[in-house]
Amino acid sequence: MIQLTTEGEVLQIVDVPVESTNLNDGLEGIAWNPENNHVFILNEKNPRMFIELDSEFNLHRSLPVSFNPPYNMSDLAGLFFFQEKQEFWIVSDDSKKIVVTDTDLNPLRGYALSGDKFEGIAVDANAGRLYLVNDRENSLYVFKLPEK
Q: Between the CA of residue 147 and those of 24, 28, 96, 137, what are the distances in Å?
């Protein structure tokens, strides 16, 4: 990870501890917790990993991500931290689904997606919207936020 100023000056370089076997299977999703300034990062696959860095970008925790059916995912493509509910929303483009977990990565619920290549995810609870970016179509999809 490289921390930059707004002018592009390098402030620090931090190794994110993932031993990926393929350069195309690397870091994919990122989210932030404004309460404690922790940064959350996903490694897409080989291995599927969740990495949490503290406010100084030191490793706080690193967990393998392996959900049992029906929540299993073959890749991790996007991540959103829903601070108000203390939930992670993880999207998989290959598995065509969203899995919502608690902060310990225990699945709470899941949603099937009708298309593939959804790689970015954000939630606006106040507006009741779920945003997904589709990499293949170069499009932003806006959905009504699912009822729990």
A: 35, 27, 19, 27
